[in-house]
From TrEMBL:
Pathway named in the protein's UniProt entry: Purine metabolism; IMP biosynthesis via de novo pathway; N(2)-formyl-N(1)-(5-phospho-D-ribosyl)glycinamide from N(1)-(5-phospho-D-ribosyl)glycinamide (10-formyl THF route): step 1/1
Protein name listed in UniProt: Phosphoribosylglycinamide formyltransferase
Binding positions (N(1)-(5-phospho-beta-D-ribosyl)glycinamide): G12, T13, N14
Species per Swiss-Prot/TrEMBL record: Agathobaculum hominis
Gene3D superfamilies the record matches: Formyl transferase, N-terminal domain (3.40.50.170)
Annotated catalysed reactions: N(1)-(5-phospho-beta-D-ribosyl)glycinamide + (6R)-10-formyltetrahydrofolate = N(2)-formyl-N(1)-(5-phospho-beta-D-ribosyl)glycinamide + (6S)-5,6,7,8-tetrahydrofolate + H(+)
Domain Formyl transferase N-terminal: start-end pairs: 3-187
Function: Catalyzes the transfer of a formyl group from 10-formyltetrahydrofolate to 5-phospho-ribosyl-glycinamide (GAR), producing 5-phospho-ribosyl-N-formylglycinamide (FGAR) and tetrahydrofolate.
């Protein structure tokens, strides 16, 4: 059984997708044990409390450096014997030391088809604003392992979503969440916990 920690900063719809998948028995061999928020006002904390999941708040500004922040987070995770960390709309960049320690044990969801519209500065609605400004006709979501390079780790799964005429960043964000993120993320978490993912360099292979 893999103990899962979900890291959040905002609304927590991806956390909700994970909670719902677990309740429906769709996360094979894994359970969400802890939700950590970088923002004390995140609605995601209410979602976690409602589901009876333990929560913690770790604010970046309360630590002198990213390293100290990473150490505090690591201490929390070790206490709960966490084997998988899921970044579900977590807006704090983790230090290299933390990413290295948890190599291939941190999964992130990003709201575009990486390598488009990703990296430093591309998060949340900004990603969809950039996609619309570029005039792409197809966008989507990516689930990937986290490395020291922002949005640069090995890709686990991607799903394309059409841009429609008249889309706003908000309407596009909603379609990408509903049609891609909320499906891909629980699936990837289940695959990880069931031991179906193997990583070799940049390539992730999924065994049936
Ligand atoms: C999601 O769209 C997620 O992909 C994105 O933030 C949103 C969080 O929504 N993450 C990033 O942009 C990370 N670079 P949620 O709190 O409702 O899950």
């Amino acid at each position: 059984m893999t103990n899962i920690a979900v890291l959040v900063s905002g609304g927590g719809t991806n956390l909700q997708a994970l909670i719902d998948a677990e309740a429906a028995g769709k996360i094979e061999n894994g359970g969400i044990r802890l939700v950590v928020s970088s923002n004390p006002n995140a609605f995601a904390l209410e979602r976690a409390a409602k589901a009876g999941i333990e929560t913690a708040v770790l604010r970046r500004k309360e630590y002198d450096s990213a390293e100290r922040y990473g150490e505090a987070l690591d201490a929390l995770l070790r206490e709960k014997e966490i084997g998988l960390i899921v970044l579900a709309g977590f807006m704090t960049v983790l230090p290299d030391s933390f990413c290295a320690k948890y190599e291939n044990r941190i999964i992130n969801v990003h709201p575009s088809l990486i390598p488009s519209f990703c990296g430093e500065g591309f998060y949340g609605l900004r990603v969809h604003e950039a996609a619309l400004a570029k005039g792409v006709k197809v966008t989507g979501a990516t689930v990937h392992f986290v490395s020291e390079v922002v949005d640069g780790g090995a890709i686990i799964a991607q799903k394309a979503v059409e841009v429609e005429p008249g889309d706003t960043p908000e309407s596009l964000q909603k379609r990408v969440m509903q049609n891609a993120e909320w499906i891909l993320l629980p699936q990837a978490v289940s695959d990880f916990c069931a031991g179906r993912l193997s990583v070799s360099g940049a390539i992730v292979t999924r065994q049936e």
